[in-house]
Structures are given as C-alpha cells and as structure tokens.
Design brief:
The chain has 13 helices and no strands. The protein is mostly helical and 316 residues long. It is globular, with a radius of gyration of 24 Å.
Length: 316
C-alpha cells in the first residue's frame, strides 16, 4: 500500500506541475497585450498606473522568471492581487469557497447515498415493472438541466410555501436551520442528475456482478439474498461506480456555477463569473488553478479508494 501511495503521489505532483504551467501560460498566450485586453474600454488610466499594472502582473520580466516567481508565490499561498480592487486573490477565494464546497459536498453525498440502494434495487428486480419505472425516472433525471430544475423548484416552493427561504445564503455558524433550508433546493437541483447517472452505472455493474460464478456459489452455500447483493456483488460493482464518482466530482463544479447563479449563492462560481465579466485575469487564473488541482486531488483519492475496495489493485 505504501508503494502505491508513493507512486500515486509522484503522479499527483507531476500532474500538478503540468497544470501550473498550463494555467500560467493561459494569460501569456492571449493574442495581443493581456493588460490592454483587461482594461478594455477604460481610457482613463494614466501611463504611470498602466506601467504599475504591468509591474504588478510581472509581465515586464522574462517569461521564465515570471513563472518561477508566480510558482513560488503560489506555493506560499500568494495567488496574486485583483486587478480592480487590489485585494489578495487568495482572500477573495477563501471568502467564497466555503459556500461552493458545502453545496458540492451535500449534493455529492446525497447522490451517492441514494444511488447505491437505487442501483442495487434496479439490478435485483431487473426487467420488472419497478426496474422500468426507476429507469424511466433516472433517464428523466439525466436529461433535466440543473438550472432548469432549480427554477422549477423555486416556482413550486414559492407557490406552495411562500415563507420558505429558497434563495440566498446564511452561514451555518450564524443560523444552522436557515443554512440548511437555503441549501435544500440547490442541493436537490444539483444532485438529481448525478443520482440518476450513478444509479444507472451501478445497475449495469451489479448486473454483471450478479451473473458471475462466485455469486452462484454464494447462493449455493445458502447465503441470504441481502448477503449476496451487498456483501458479494456490490463490493465488485463498486470499482466502476467509484470511477464515475471521481469523474463526476471533478466536473461538478461546472454545474455548481450555474446553480449558484439561480439561487443567488455567494460562492466561488459567482466570483468567477464576475471575474470573467471584469477581465480580472489574476482571479480567473487562481480559480482555474484551484479547480484543476481539486480535480487532480480527487482522482488521487479515487485511486487510493480502488486499493481499499479491491486489494488486487495494489499488486498492479
């Protein structure tokens, strides 16, 4: 297990190094002058302020020196400063990332917890009326966009329960009940498509596992049906399921950005959209670095989870 962790850590650091180069070059490869593009139609800036902006962004230095200075700053937690406010980018991200992390964690947890019994049930009662009914619901869940589902939920709750706080955000430490009630609808909107996709993936994996010889052997030994499904078949079916969870968790941030807009949540997604509108490239650069690094770390954890589920992976 130690060799596996060491090998994966080396892979993780290598990929993060490559990610840092790509993110760094993002601004430098923009055709034309990146500073002029950021300023846009702002013609009131003086030459002195323009020169100061070049110096602050480090664009007046050789590109290799720029990269290592930027990388050293990132390793020390310095992600640069906002072009327009001058505030440290790291502080702006820290102030918003808690909302996004809470929404992503609740949505993914809800989807995974419900997908496991749903996928097992669909596989166990395959080709029955219940199987077809659940599959129909999951197909609808996959095809419905999260933002549209969020709008529908707001409309329904506004008419059925006018006093229910469906939009906005309250920190958990200030009002735990208000925090959870305001995250209820965005969590449902974000988790339903994930739940539908994961349950269908697990159904397919479970159907394959239930047809294996070891399952027939377990049944022949008198193991109960619950034991066959959850102790024997589910363990082997979890490998593709965990793979899908890792990939979906990485892409979940994209859906979070839209849902945060619909429910007026002051998360990282809204911060990035504002940064794009203002051409605040240091903030965009830092946010992309953070999101891509999160994706890489999640896949690292998924690799370790493989080994925990199936010890044969350690040998490979």
């Amino acid at each position: 297990m130690r060799r596996l962790i060491l090998a994966r850590l080396i892979d993780l650091l290598t990929v993060l190094f490559g990610v840092s180069i790509i993110v760094f070059l993002m601004i430098r490869l923009i055709p034309g002058d990146a500073v002029q593009i950021m300023l846009g139609a702002n013609t009131e800036i003086t030459p002195e302020r323009l020169a100061a902006l070049y110096h602050r962004l480090g664009i007046d230095r050789p590109i290799l020196e720029q990269y290592f200075l930027w990388l050293a700053g990132v390793l020390q937690g310095d992600l640069g400063r906002s072009v327009w406010t001058g505030a440290p980018v790291a502080e702006e991200i820290i102030a918003r990332i808690g909302v996004t992390a809470e929404l992503m964690a609740t949505s993914l947890t809800l989807a995974v917890v419900l997908a496991i019994p749903a996928g097992c049930l669909m596989a166990y009662v395959r080709r029955s009326a219940g199987d077809y009914a659940i599959r129909l619901v999951t197909i609808a869940g996959i095809t419905v966009p999260s933002f549209w589902l969020g709008i529908v939920l707001i409309y329904v709750f506004y008419n059925l329960a006018p006093n229910f706080q469906a939009v906005g955000y309250v920190p958990f430490r200030d009002d735990p009940v208000g925090n959870l009630s305001r995250l209820l609808l965005p969590t449902i909107a974000l988790s339903l498509p994930i739940l539908a996709a994961l349950s269908r993936i697990l159904r397919t994996a479970m159907l394959d596992a239930l047809g294996q010889d070891y399952v027939r052997t377990a049944r022949g030994k008198g193991v109960s049906e619950a034991g066959v499904v959850f102790r024997h078949a589910l363990r082997n079916a979890l490998i593709p399921f965990v793979t899908a969870v890792g990939i979906i968790a990485g892409y979940l941030f994209g859906g979070t950005i839209v849902v945060e807009q619909v429910f007026a949540l002051p998360g990282l997604g809204r911060l990035i959209i504002g940064a794009i509108a203002e051409r605040n490239y240091p903030l965009i650069q830092a946010a992309i670095l953070l999101v891509t690094s999160g994706f890489v770390v999640i896949n690292f954890l998924v690799d370790l989870l493989y080994a925990a589920i199936d010890p044969r992976v350690q040998g490979e």
